[in-house]
């Protein structure tokens, strides 16, 4: 169990709901959800997440580029990339830019637990 605050960034509502349920069941607090890059940038100011689950493909942004913005705004936040695309070069770039873990969709509660454990959570 953790008291870490989590932000979920994904354009699909069902994915945000699914991930939110898994996280809440594990004792995490979901402090914000965002469906786009712009929404992420706005909400990042208002909340102070410890962990951010970040989709790579968003309607108005590239998650890899958004990762740079997140690190500038909230350098202490641990980012976990979460995407259906398994393009190795894009995932590697995200990890090189500071993302801590990558989870491929569709994900299981066990895979989310593994990602959180990799953060020391």
Number of domains: 1
Helix content: 40-55%
CATH-defined topology: Rossmann fold
Q: Major sheet: order of its strands?
A: 2-1-3-4-5
Write a brief caption for the model.
The protein is α/β, with parallel strands linked by helices.
How would you explain this protein's 3D organization?
This protein is an alpha/beta fold. It has a single domain (5-116), classed as Response regulator (Rossmann fold, 3-Layer(aba) Sandwich). 44% of the residues lie in helices and 21% in strands. It has five helices and five strands. The chain has a five-stranded parallel beta sheet with strand order 2-1-3-4-5, sandwiched between helices. The N and C termini lie close together (8 Å). The mean pLDDT is 93.
Search tags:
Rossmann fold; 5-stranded parallel β-sheet; 121 residues; 5 helices; alpha/beta
């Amino acid at each position: 169990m953790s008291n870490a605050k989590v932000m979920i960034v994904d354009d699909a509502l069902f994915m945000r709901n699914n991930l939110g349920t898994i996280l809440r069941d594990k004792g995490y607090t979901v402090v914000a959800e965002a469906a786009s890059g712009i929404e992420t940038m706005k909400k990042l100011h208002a909340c102070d997440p410890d962990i951010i689950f970040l989709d790579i493909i968003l309607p108005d942004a590239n998650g890899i580029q958004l990762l740079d913005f997140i690190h500038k705004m909230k350098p202490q936040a641990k980012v976990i990339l979460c995407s259906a695309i398994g393009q190795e070069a894009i995932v590697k770039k995200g990890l090189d830019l500071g993302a801590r873990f990558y989870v491929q969709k569709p994900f299981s509660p066990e895979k989310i637990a593994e990602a959180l454990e990799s953060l020391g959570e």
